[in-house]
Every structure is written in C-alpha cells, then in structure tokens.
Design a protein that fits this description.
The protein is α/β, with parallel strands linked by helices and about 475 residues long. The chain has helices spanning about 5-15, 25-40, 45-50, 60-80, 80-90, 100, 110-115, 145-165, 180-195, 205-215, 235-245, 270-280, 395-400, 430-445; strands at about 130, 140-145, 170-175, 200, 230-235, 260, 280-285, 285, 295-300, 305, 310-315, 330-335, 350-355, 360, 370-375, 380, 385, 390, 410-415, 420-425, 450-455. Helices cover about 35% and strands about 20% of the residues. The longest helix is centred in the N-terminal third of the chain and has 22 residues, at about 60-80.
Length: about 475
C-alpha cells in the first residue's frame, strides 16, 4: 500500500526510463499523476524536472548515446534488408561503433524510405500499424509501428500533458489536423482519452465550420463549457484567424486557453494576430515527424528546440558534404531514434531535410542540459543559396505574416535571380505603400529582395510554397436519392 497518491507517482516514475517500456507501469504512472492532481491540485514546482529525464554531463551523454546507437545499429544490420546490405558494404561491426564511426554510415535519404518502406522493418517485429505522412509536398512516406509502440507513445504523451497541466480531465479538445495524419492523431487522441478529457476531430474542414465548433457551448458534467484545447497546423490556424476576425468573432466567443500548433513554420506574426481572435492563449510548440517518431524536440522559454539525448541522436549535417557541420553553420537535422522506440521500422541517420543552426552553451533556459538548435528555418529544397548566403522560408514567412496587409496564412513564393531573390505574395490590395512595407519587412529580416510581385488573387502566384491547410476535407452536406 502507498501512503499517498504522490508516493504512487514516485514509485511508477522509477520505471519510466526503463528499457523496454513496461505498459502496465506507464499506465500506473498516469493513474498516479491523476490521483496526485486530484489530491493536491498540482504536481508541484519540481514535477517537470522529476519527469523530464536525467540531466547528463557531456561524458555521460556520449556514453549513453553511443551505447544506444550501437543497439539500434545491431538491430538494423541483423534484422532489416536496407541496413544489412549497407553494413556489409561498409565492413563495419555495428556492435563496436565509436562516435567517430557514426559519420561513416551514409545518411538515410527520404527517397529510400519512400520507395521501399518494407526494407526498414525488422524481421519478427510484428508490425500492426502502417501510417503515412500527409503528402503535403508529394507522395506520402510510409512507416510501420507495433501496437505496443503506439500504446506506449499515447501513455507517455498523457504523462507529459498531465505533468505540464496543458490537458486535464476537465478539458474539451478539438483536433483540427488532417485526417490522413493517422500517427499523430492516433497517439494524441489516445493520450487525451487516457487523461479523461473529451476529444473530437474536425479534420481540415471549412474554417467557418471549425470556428462554429470551437465557439459551441457544452453542458457536460465536470467539463469546461467550451472547447479549451486546439491542436492544429500553423497554416490552418492562420485560416481560422482570418475567417474568425472577418466574421466578427472575438475572444469572448471562445474558451480556448491552449493551442498546440506545428507541422509548419510558426511565426511570431501568426501568434500575435491569433491572440486578437482567441485572447491570451498559451501556444504549445514542438518538433516531430512521422519518419523519426517519437524522437522530437521541445521548445524552451527562450525559443530553442531541445532534444532529449537519451531518446535519440541528433546530428547537424552539412548539406553539401553530408559530414558533421561546423559550429554556427546551418545544416540539416539527421536523426536516429533509439530503442525502446522503433520496434518495427528502424532508421539510422535519417535526413529530415529540415534546416537549423546548432545552439551552444552556456544556456540559461530550463532545458539547458538537452541538445539545442534554433527554431526551424525551413526545408532544404525550399531554401535558396545566394552569393551572400542562404535565404530560408522562415525569413520570408516571418516578414510577411507580421503585416496586417498580408492575409493569413501568407501565400507566397520566392526564387533565385541575379543579385538575390524575387518574392511574390498575395495581399489584400495592391498599392505603393503596401509594396514599400513588405519590401522593408523582408529587408529587415535579411532577405536580399531584388524583385517583388504582389497579387490580390493567390491563384496567380507562380511559385507558391506548399501549405497543409490546402489538404482540405469536404463536408458531405446533402444527399439526394432517386428511386
């Protein structure tokens, strides 16, 4: 018997970082947190540190990471078709890898997983769930997971939300993400359900319909009277803001207090303009992708992306040489999720194609002991290198979405020309003052704009950057049956 709910929590937490995951222990941990919150109202000031994993010095971090990398490499070499042939060609013993050897293993390009996802599945792993990416930029990529992986991820997410207080049993959660995003939707909804909150999925329907659901009053025992948590993409949130303000909505019409937004570049302008519609909401930002799930990153209060080092290896790789980048150099994130994650599909050194810059200490943020990078700068294939350096999608989007003259989400494109870049953008109306404001905003963010094209009709843009809000789902409004 335990003397208090918090004692249960501490006992269950001792198994959280065990390998492999024990689902019963994780489930007991959720019960412990729920009981603690019910008895004491909160977990206390040290709960984030208590449940956030161990703080590792540099020597210990390297030791933990190389041991876990070796374990995953052995599994990949012995049990997958893709990596068995690769290690044979390299002549490297995966069980004896050093940190210096890691760079000898070629990065895994997206096209390899895209073209043959079965080659990455471990023999005997019993995959139960094949998920795909949403296909925002082309053919979807497939990844396999075991049932245990999905259950464990849902429980870990529930623990994280409860510990942070971001979702509690009183909440009503609206999921406004693509219905094709089956991995994120499944794990997130399982977490919400395990917490005891209410959830529903709208998909990417007409923004007016999503806003109507968010403003709807509820009378459920023990629940808030309106949807309180919104999970969505940056571009779709922009559509909600634009539609809501144009329709006369204001903060008094909603009860949203947390917005989890990601999947795309989230700009400061978007968040500022969003508060005009929803009021003083807390934004939850993180980084994750299907191919490297669940190893991802958390934002700290200073805007860094932080990666928990015991869960995976993050490398910042020079996009030209595929070798480790130099300090301060922009590179793509190359990711290896560790065991006990990825029991079915294994990926080593997966090239996410996401550009960031490493952040070095000493740091003063709450996650200073975790590996840190800047916020996402954009996909490599969408960035442009000029004579004076890179131009990233983030620079363009930050410049444009800070301006009220540009409807949300900013529909825009840019391309290389002599001396810099040309930029095109959809605006509410075209005049010289707007042109000057946009040009100034771009220049303030280091964009060497040489040509600027404004369009009132977004369909006239020739190089428009892809947006997830365009994965629109159509509502079935009426049926006519003829006999």
């Amino acid at each position: 018997m335990f003397e208090s709910a918090f004692a249960q929590l501490r006992y269950a937490a001792s198994v959280l970082f065990a390998v492999p995951f024990d689902l019963r222990s994780l489930d007991r941990l959720v019960d412990g947190i729920l009981a603690t919150k019910q008895e004491f109202g909160s977990l206390g000031a040290d709960s984030a540190e208590f449940l956030g994993g161990p703080e590792l010095d540099e020597e210990t971090r390297r030791d933990v990471q190389i041991r876990r990398f070796r374990k995953q490499a052995v599994r990949a070499a012995e049990e997958t078709d893709y990596y068995s042939s690769q290690f044979t060609t390299l002549g490297v013993d995966p069980s004896r890898l050093t940190f210096e050897d890691i760079a000898r293993i070629p990065v895994t390009p997206k096209k390899a997983l895209l073209n043959n996802p079965d080659a990455f599945v471990r023999r005997g792993s019993n995959p139960a769930f094949r998920t795909t990416t949403t296909g925002t930029t082309g053919k979807p990529t497939s990844v396999y997971f075991t049932a245990r992986e999905i259950q464990a991820t849902g429980l870990l997410a529930a623990i994280s939300f409860l510990q942070s207080g971001q979702i509690t049993p009183e909440d009503i959660v609206q999921i406004s993400t693509s219905s094709r995003a089956t991995l994120g939707n499944t794990c997130f909804s399982q977490a919400v359900q395990r917490i005891g909150a209410v959830w529903y999925q709208t998909g990417l329907v007409d923004p007016a319909q999503a806003l109507a659901l968010l403003s709807e009053s509820h009378h459920l025992p023990g629940k808030k009277n309106r949807a309180s948590f919104l999970n969505t993409y940056a571009s779709y949130l922009g559509e909600l803001v634009e539609c809501g303000l144009n329709s006369g909505y204001s903060p008094k019409d909603f009860g949203v207090d947390h917005i989890s937004v990601g999947g795309e570049i989230v700009t400061e302008g978007l968040k500022r303009r969003c508060r005009k519609l929803f009021g003083s909401v807390e934004f939850i930002q993180s980084y994750a992708m299907t191919e490297t799930w669940p190893f991802g990153a958390t934002f700290c209060e200073e805007g860094h992306l932080h990666f928990e080092p015991s869960q995976g290896l993050l490398e910042i790789v020079d996009p030209d040489t595929a070798q480790p980048g130099k300090p301060g150099q922009t590179g793509t994130m190359v990711v290896t999720p560790f065991a006990p994650y990825r029991e079915a599909s294994v990926v080593l050194r997966y090239d996410t194609e996401d550009l960031v810059q490493p952040v070095f200490g000493p740091l003063g943020c709450s996650l200073k002991h975790w590996t840190a990078t800047t916020d996402l700068l954009g996909k490599l294939r969408l960035a442009i290198r000029t004579a004076n350096g890179w131009v990233y999608p983030r620079q363009i989007r930050e410049a444009l979405e800070s301006l009220e003259e540009v409807p949300l989400p900013a529909r825009c494109g840019f391309w290389a020309i002599e001396g810099g870049v040309a930029v095109e953008v959809a605006v509410r109306k075209i005049d010289s003052s707007i042109r000057n404001r946009i040009g100034q905003s771009l220049e303030e963010r280091g964009v060497p704009v040489c040509e600027l094209y404004l369009e009132e009709d977004p369909s006239q843009l020739q190089h428009q950057l892809p947006l997830r809000c365009d994965l629109r789902e159509i509502l079935f409004e009426r049926s006519v049956i003829k006999l």
